[in-house]
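Team,

Forwarding the record for the chain on the shared tracking sheet. I've put the sequence and predicted structure together so nobody has to dig through attachments.
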Amino acid sequence: MAAKHSTSGEGACALHAIHTLTWKLGIGRVGLNSGAVIGLSLTVGGWLSNFIVFLIQEFNINSIDAAKIANVVNGSSSFIPIIAAIIADSFFGSFSVISVSSCISLLGIILLTLTATLNSLKPQPCAIVSELCQPTSTLQYAIPYAAYIPFSTSIGLGGTRFTMAILGANQFDRRKDQATFFNWCFVSIYSASIVGLTVIIYLEDNVGYRRGFGLAVITNLVAIAIFLSGTRFYKYDKPQGSPFVGLARVIVAATWKRNLQISSESKDYYYGNYGVTGVEAAASSRSLRFLNRAAQKTEGDIRSDGSIVKPWRLSTMQQVEDFKTIIRIFPMWSIGIFLATPLAIQSSLSILQALTMDPHLGPHFRIPPGSVVVIILISNVISLSLIDRFLYPAWQKLIGRSPTPLQRIGLGHMLNILSMAVAAMVESKRLKVFQDHHLHDQPGAVVPMLALWLFPQLTLIGIGEAFHFPGQVEFFYQEFPLSLRSTSTALTSLIIGISFYLSTGVINLVQRITGWLLNNISDGKLDNVYWMLAVVGVINFGYYLVCAKFYKYQNVKGADGSPDPDSA
């Protein structure tokens, strides 16, 4: 017995040593990946958040139109990740997609630097946007659009950020390590963005856009160098071909066999090369049973060697279950759109508010308007660190398990609704100060109210994002089929992209049917817009509670409170 116990103890020690070594190797590979993430985040933070101010100051575009254009640009940059993820999953892998996208990002930043350097590529400046300003030519409009949409944002930013997160998570084998990685990945992204939003934007506002964009070129180059230096060490994901073809076959096959009587026998279903063992439960899935027809064998479907005669007439049971998983997740995904759209509107309008307020922080320092959203990132980084190191361990001790991704998303919902209410109250205060000082007849007048008043609402956004954003990414990563793992986290970016486009539509709608949003926001009722967004948030939170109540975790053992072997 003693010998047996000793052998068992040695085996446990060896297993622990293997886990420790694997974890350390993963950390090393992730270090290179994170270095590249930090460099690219510095690049993006240095110009994307200052885009509204850049359009107003350099291209003579009025404030509301600049906010709408910025939302379109942000939306475009958030649609590409889903395409990049599909390409990575299906054909080339994450490493190749990241390498190409980061080089395209560099080309875009170089083009922006030329825009800021050559006067022929932009109209002559004017102090106040009016009819006396020199109009912007088609060529001058085309340059920043070419830089921001097809190059820097859409392909450069979109093809790297979420794909890099997947490559980093794939360096670990245990879910607990992957969840921790996602938290600290966002800490790295936001920390670097803070530097970009402060240092680089400060250079742009006080020294010139040429030097600010030039610094962004350097950080992009450094990011590429760091990422490529890990070429020999990364654990690569192997593309398995497009999983979407298999999912499409499920729809076609189920439709073709719509009149077929559904069988309750496992032997009547096709399991591919895996046989019934290990996936037999798939045939007994009670939800969306009509889709099981796609994997139900009929005469003439299978050759004598076991291969499929007509691929679009028969799917594997695993493909059917993967398609069911996507359908189950869709309501949870749609909730994110209605959460992110008000946040996109608030971020853009906060910059416009900052442009009308006293930017000074002490007697000698002024806050660049484009940098005001850095408060979101700062509060996010601090919150993520505290949540990961203190809140979640305390939750584990008190409740007996870590908070599920859906619980984290719910907390984020509540905090973001609160941020809208605070924003409405602050804007009411700003409008009152504007009216009390009779500034209606002074276009461009600065309200004698510190931009610091915007900090509470932005802080609440950051804390809310610290809960719901990593929670969404982890939820999709864990719940989606393995063949769609890169695509799963990119869905969060797709949410952001749709929300930015919807935010532009909402702003247009509000402008048409109300007098709340005018070119000079001090003449409108921006506080009513924030109250409207708070109401939308409450309705969406109710929708979330219903969806979360009925959702059943598919791939996360222990999500319902049972022990999770991966959390050890």
